[in-house]
Design goal:
The structure holds 2 protein chains of 2 kinds. Helices cover about 35% and strands about 15% of the residues of chain A. By secondary structure, chain A is of the alpha/beta class. By secondary structure, chain B is mainly alpha-helical. The radius of gyration of chain B is 25 Å and the shape is globular. The chains are: A alpha/beta, B mainly alpha. Chains A and B meet through strand 7, helix 7 and helix 8 of A and helix 11, helix 12, helix 22, helix 23 and helix 25 of B.
Chain lengths: ~400, ~475
């Protein structure tokens, strides 16, 4: 029997138990581990894809969008008449480096305008709501080969990561300030508990991530879920956790505040600025990942798009298809991935939403194959009942 | 774990200092809590978010898109929800029947609704536990499931209000107007039927098919909510846009939405009308798969993540013998020798942990901010992430972040508690030494040699830090 390096590391890690996860000098593994890393960023609330990536070429676009399509000269052209809202300017650098896919007219495989059902579908990877199903990232961890571990970098365990495989978690909190002496004494206490000791030690190992964030001037840590001024700090923390040699290779992050029923704004408006903070965060993430950025893929998705037309309160309501992004060195080339359904009245889904032509699962399968070398069969298993949905293997090289 | 600690912590909601030593008949103490009426709760008007007028006003406000009015109504709703949640937490912290109260929480979570869904469910979640769960925790399971099935919170939460018989009178009526809503809503919604089978009664392996789900969904068509506007409006616009209406927000059977004809579920034939739904709920609640599923879930909650099969068998037998008499099932649970055997333990969920902390310091009430604390601990009241409810397994809760959260929160709470104690003290009183906190070591079962008692007695450590150590240390994480 031959054992590849990965398997060897896995078994070596097993011998060291939870301690292998932290504190190993980087030199031991830097040359042997080439594993991919995946960050799944869920924008809860349904961000407006037509605002983020504007189809300026569509003859119906300007009239349909009305006030939401003002100041179009400030949009940033990508390709084929698709243009980014100016807040997403940091994405231009990803684009220029060949590291950005903009996905459009994309939707989950279940028609719902409910946040609850939509997020459940997106996070379980199924084609209809199922109360007890595990998250697809957790399923991925059970299907992947070699050493792998998942982490939630979020205030709460996202559904996408829940399931039978044990995962870790980290979040900046403001539950309290603790002294070193207190933590030392707790360490002593935890020594007598075999089941919990390793996890407490792991938490101690991650504690300095929060301290580093503070030292870098991160503020209002508890507000980190909304991409406020500190989204970049949160992404830096994510990079700090994921760039350690034995760090997790699957992470879930989430941000809320995208449910723009009112005062969505156009160029320079609320949504544009919020997208800007997200994009700045991702730029900070790439920078902080440093030499571990190669091999890393970030997926940005949301549970649904929004109505194609503005509503009566200068916002948009729950819709169907929307946009998403894949960022990473594994992207085969920068491009807009869309089978454009059109915005003419008869082309809209139920005469109100951008019609779905791209299945989130087809994209995710392609991403998984490109990031972790999953076979098509394995990728199918991550999304049960999806064998009829062909993975877009060509998205990643 | 000693029998008093099993009774106080695993069955109850957390021991108070000295309580374990005083409890000389732990089993009798638990059994006595099962006597008499179920632990009901009457809200004050300020702590009742499910009030019909508020509910209707919010509906009307949302329809009118009068943003100021909606904002004001939302503020009122938020305040009432906070007060409602604080009241329930206070009950858990102060009750002298903690086992009965845990029994309520178990069933409330089993048949959960979630405030994380729409505003309708959020408003009604507290009323749901009060009206559909509490009155039935010592009764037959089928009565609880029936109350749950008919409660507006559940009807909204699992979308039964949206479910229309494809051949119902309403579906056959010519469509008026066009626009986005008219086409989107006509038809069956299987959500409730599926979860009733999978999560509430038979369990996912309980032996039902997709066809059973669909047939069951047909039976429940027409089960809807009263007091929210004329049916005509609901039929046209779908589920939940009715602004008018009067009377209590409650259950109503809307015959025009009901699917005509006979239905077959699990081999049994049911007729048309409201009674068929009642009959099928009773049949499902009494189904042998339900007994097996619930026996396992109860044993898992009260004994161990991997409970002994013999314990599950015993609970199942009682369930089958009594047609799901929950009081008798609880009695069987307490009488099981295996439940008291050393070696079993459960990791405290955040709610368990937080309530136990408050009981250990003999808190009189839960502060208004405590519901948010539970949110930060990822275990908000009445807001599970899915219809499955919150889990109670170690792997679901004992992650590294959770342990650090508890360490930090314990530190903060202890700091605040001692500060508050100082300011309330009588300045004229003779200076006392710090409070004797050594009894905090008695609220949980400690292994011999655990360094905690020594730390608690060590006056070189600040008193608030010592209090925090008692709650953040590993022993306190288990029940």
């Amino acid at each position: 029997m031959t054992m590849n390096r990965r398997e060897f590391l896995h078994s070596a890690g097993m011998c060291f138990g939870g301690l292998a996860t932290f504190g190993f000098p980087e030199v031991h593994f830097a040359n042997v581990r080439q594993d991919g890393r995946l960050v799944f960023v869920l924008l809860r609330g349904g961000f407006d894809g037509l605002a983020a990536v504007a189809p300026t070429f569509d003859p119906a676009w300007r009239d349909l969008r009305g006030p939401l399509a003002a100041d179009t000269d400030q949009l940033l052209d990508l390709a084929d008449g698709f243009a980014l809202t100016p807040g997403l300017a940091p994405f231009r650098e990803f684009w220029d480096r060949g590291e950005l896919l903009a996905l459009h007219a994309m939707a989950i495989p279940y028609r719902t305008r409910s946040h609850f059902d939509g997020q459940a579908i997106l996070e379980t990877g199924l084609d209809q709501p199922e109360g007890s199903a595990a998250g697809w990232l957790n399923r991925l961890l059970s299907i992947m080969e070699g050493e792998r571990s998942g982490i939630a970098i979020a205030a709460g365990m996202p559904r996408s990561l829940t399931g039978p495989v044990e995962v870790s978690s980290w979040s900046p909190t403001e539950l309290g300030v603790v002294e070193d002496a207190y933590l030392d004494r707790l360490s002593v206490l935890y020594r007598s508990d075999e089941a919990l000791q390793g996890r407490f030690e792991a938490a101690l190992g991650m504690l300095d991530v929060g301290e580093e964030m503070e030292a870098m001037g991160g503020e209002g840590m508890a507000g980190g879920r909304r991409p406020g001024a500190d989204a970049a700090s949160l992404f830096r923390a994510a990079a700090r956790l994921m760039s350690t040699p034995e760090g997790p290779n699957v992470a879930a992050m989430e941000f809320s505040g995208w449910d723009t029923h009112a005062n969505q704004g156009g160029v320079g408006g609320n949504l544009d600025r919020q997208l800007g903070r997200l994009a700045e965060g991702l730029a900070a993430f790439r920078e902080a990942m440093g030499e571990r950025w190669p091999g890393t893929t970030v997926v940005v998705m949301t549970e649904f798009g929004r109505t194609a037309r503005p509503n009566g309160t200068s916002g948009t309501d729950h819709g169907t298809a929307g946009a998403g992004f894949v960022l990473g060195t594994g992207v085969s080339r920068s491009r807009v991935v869309a089978d454009w359904p059109g915005l003419a009245e008869h082309q809209l889904f139920e005469n109100r939403d951008l019609a779905p032509t791209l299945d989130t699962r087809a994209v995710l399968k392609g991403v998984l194959a490109g990031t972790f070398d999953l076979t098509p069969t394995q990728a199918d298993r991550v999304f049960p009942g999806s064998s009829g949905v062909r993975g877009m293997w060509e998205l990643m090289s | 774990m000693s029998p008093p600690h099993v009774a106080l912590n695993r069955f109850g909601l957390g021991a108070r200092p000295g309580e374990a030593e005083r409890l000389d008949d732990p089993r009798g103490w638990l059994l006595r809590q099962l006597e008499g009426p179920p632990p009901t709760l009457t809200p004050t008007p300020e702590a009742d978010a499910g009030d019909s007028d508020l509910f209707r006003s919010l509906f009307a406000g949302l329809r009118s898109q009068d943003q100021e009015r909606v904002a004001e109504l939302r503020r009122v709703a938020r305040q009432r929800r906070q007060a409602e949640m604080s009241a329930v937490l206070t009950t858990r912290v102060t009750t002298e029947r903690p086992f009965a109260e845990r029994w309520v929480a178990f069933w409330s979570n089993h048949l959960c609704v979630s405030s994380a869904d729409g505003f309708q469910t959020a408003l009604l979640a507290g009323a749901y536990e009060r009206d559909a769960i509490r009155p039935h925790v010592f009764g037959r399971f089928e009565e609880m499931v029936l109350a749950s099935a008919r409660h507006p919170a559940m009807l909204y939460y699992l979308d039964n209000v949206r479910s229309t018989g494809p051949n119902s009178a309403a579906a056959r009526r010519p469509r008026r107007g066009k626009g986005p809503v008219a086409g989107a809503l006509r038809g069956l919604n299987e959500n409730y039927a599926r979860e009733l089978l999978e999560l509430h009664t038979l369990g996912v392996d309980g032996g039902y098919t997709q066809d059973d789900v669909e047939q069951l969904a047909r039976i429940f068509t027409g089960w809807g909510v009263s007091g929210v506007g004329p049916e005509r409006l609901r039929v046209r616009a779908g589920s939940d846009t009715g602004a008018g209406g009067s009377g209590e927000i409650g259950f109503r059977f809307a015959a025009p939405l009901h699917e005509p004809g006979r239905k077959r579920v699990l081999g049994r034939t049911y007729g048309e009308g409201e009674d068929a739904g009642v009959a099928v709920v009773r049949d499902l609640a009494r189904h042998p798969s339900t007994a097996r599923f619930l026996a396992g879930k109860i044993a898992t909650h009260f004994m161990d993540d991997a409970p002994p099969p013999a314990a599950i068998d015993a609970l199942e037998r009682t369930w089958l013998d009594t047609d799901g008499d929950l009081r008798e099932v609880a009695r069987t649970l307490v009488r099981l020798d295996a439940a008291w055997a050393p070696g079993h333990r459960k990791f405290r969920t955040p709610q368990d942990w937080f309530v136990a902390v408050l009981r250990a310091v003999d808190a009189r009430e839960a502060a208004g901010t405590f519901p948010q604390v539970l949110q930060q601990l990822r275990h908000p009241l009445w807001a599970p992430p899915s219809p499955k409810g919150f889990g109670d397994l170690r792997r679901e809760w004992a992650d590294s972040d959770a342990l650090m959260n508890r360490a930090e929160l314990a530190r903060t709470l202890a700091r605040r508690a001692t500060r508050a104690g100082r300011t309330q003290g009588d300045p004229a009183a003779p200076r006392r030494r710090g409070p004797d906190i050594r009894p905090l070591a008695t609220v949980v079962a400690l292994e011999p040699g655990d360094p905690l008692p020594e730390m608690l007695a060590d006056e070189s450590i600040p008193v608030d830090e010592r209090i925090a150590l008692a709650f953040a240390g590993p022993a306190f994480q288990w029940r």
